[in-house]
Amino acid sequence: MRVSENKLNPSLKNQLIKTFAQTLADFKNLDEVLAFLNDFFNESELETFVKRLSIAYWLKKERSYENIKNNLKVSSATIATIEKLLTKPGFILAL
Questions:
Q1: Residue 50 phi/psi, 5° resolution?
Q2: Could you please report the per-residue DSSP string of the chain?
Q3: Is the separation of the CB atoms in 51 and 75 below 8 Å?
């Protein structure tokens, strides 16, 4: 995936992120969330997002890097990156 070189104004970016978060919070049930995720993200984007959360979950469950690499088809570098994020409030809430 190519990241845009045109950066948003930080204030606008913050507002847009809050709007996105509110959109997620407004869903009434799991079926609505799944419909949104499958329609909004392409297959690769959704898989990347799901893998990040899975890596965090499996690290918390003390699975080895090798086990995570083999099951999720990710690199050690990706696992290490996610491991550094495990103490962040968002990851703590999710897990």
A1: -65, -40
A2: -PPPSSPPPHHHHHHHHHHHHHHHHT--SHHHHHHHHHHHS-HHHHHHHHHHHHHHHHHHTT--HHHHHHHHT--HHHHHHHHHHTTSHHHHHH-
A3: no
Give the CA distances from residue 17 to residues 13, 21, 24, 71, 78, in Å, rounded to whole numbers and listed in that order.
6, 6, 11, 31, 24
Predicted TM-score (pTM) of this structure: 0.82
Other C-beta atoms lying within 10 Å of the C-beta of residue 55: 25
Q: What is the pLDDT of residues 44-57, one digit of tens each?
A: 999 999 999 999 99
CB 74 within 8 A of CB 68: yes
Give whole-number Cα distances, 76 to 12, 25, 26, 48, 59, in Å. 35, 33, 36, 15, 12
